[in-house]
Amino acid sequence: PKKFLLIELFEMGASLMVSPSITQILTKHPDAEIHVLTTDSCVGSWLTLNQVESNRIHVISGGSLVHFGFSILRNIWKLRQVKFEVILDFGLLTRVTSILSGILSAKHRAGFHRMALEGLYRGTFFDLKCSFNQNRHISANFLALTDLALNPDSPAEFPSPKIAVDRSLLKLPEYRPKLRASELTEKFFPDFNLTHHKLIVVSPDVGPTLSVRNYPIHSLVRLLDMMSSQYPNFYFAIVGTSNDQKTQLAVLEKVANKERFVGLCGKTSFTDLLDILAIAEFAISNDNGVAHFAALTRTRSLALFSTDSPNVYGPLGECAIVYSYFHCSPCIMAYNHKRSLCSNNRCLQVISPEFVFDIFQKFEKGIIKGGTVNGTIPYINF
Fold it and tell me: Rounded distance, CA 279 to CA 87, Å?
């Protein structure tokens, strides 16, 4: 096969997790022509990976439902002309991508299938059906799906594929900053002396659709106060979209040592954010894209997980995850189409700022390693 189409529409973090699969395709087929179908909110991730030519990244525009529908139709017409030989649908949550796989005619269509499990029903458009393993990292699941697509003539077995994913393949390319540190300082941190101080990037808000993942403001403020008091050489940059400005304001109003904080929500492009992460010493975030982007820049991160399993969605970088192991967690997964009924995230509320600060200190000093939950349990556990 020469022409591949990869479909991953909605999650910026998930698009990064597809990177090892692209590497695997190019290893076996160096001359492969790889296309991607995604949405406008995820384009930045794909361009940053620099593994797919920009003119082969096909974008479905968001906005209104009507606009979304017409954009899908335009892409269907355009992509059918390419005549793909293999389609890999990396979607888990909706049937939209499954239907697209069926409409975009290809010799082989590979996607996740529920096998004998409840949930995860996505139609019958796939001739190569891959089982989804909730106990394995999402990038390992993507690699299993890719292996199935690269070996379409292997004997069909149930469930499939019967392989052991190579953990050494779970890595991301390294991002190369566009701006020098001096240019970033002049643009975003004119009052900070980053020559003799370290920068900590803080992402306090996951957004309105997944606010159940947010660490309580009072706990975050307490954590930041301990950090700024214990580490007088730390500056803090709060990042996010313009929708996160209310949360940013709540943090900035309550933290001590305000002169060492700057609010950048809504003020950075995606590339700016990556450049800022590249010069940062640490990133502190909820379970959102920032921890995954930090893996691209090789920046250490500390992430607070709650509704999703860290064993499935932990960043592919030097990350220490804090997790409470509540009986009801994870309450968001592929099997329930990532729909949580929770409106009271006690799994995050019980995590004390003192405990998070202790994990951070041990991580900062090298006492605990990245890739672990609470500094003890590896989250890519195979």
Answer: 38
Residues 6 or more apart in contact with residue 100 via CB below 8 angstroms: 7, 37, 72, 76, 89
Two tokens at 34?
């790889």
| Angstrom distance (rounded) from CA 310 to CA 378 | 10
Write down the pTM of the prediction.
Answer: 0.89
Torsion of CA 330, 333, 338, 340, to 10 degrees: -30
What is the rounded distance in angstroms from the CA atom of residue 11 to the CA atom of residue 139? Answer: 13
Question: H-type helices in 6-155, by residue range?
Answer: 12-17, 19-28, 43-49, 65-80, 96-103, 138-150
Q: What angle do CA 46, 123, 12 make, to 5 degrees?
A: 20
Q: Are 297 and 199 in contact (CB under 8 A)?
A: no
Three-class DSSP category at 210: helix
Tokens of 25: 């395709």
pLDDT digit string (tens) for 345-380?
999 999 999 999 999 999 999 999 999 999 999 998
Q: How many angstroms from the chain centroid is the CA of residue 179?
A: 23
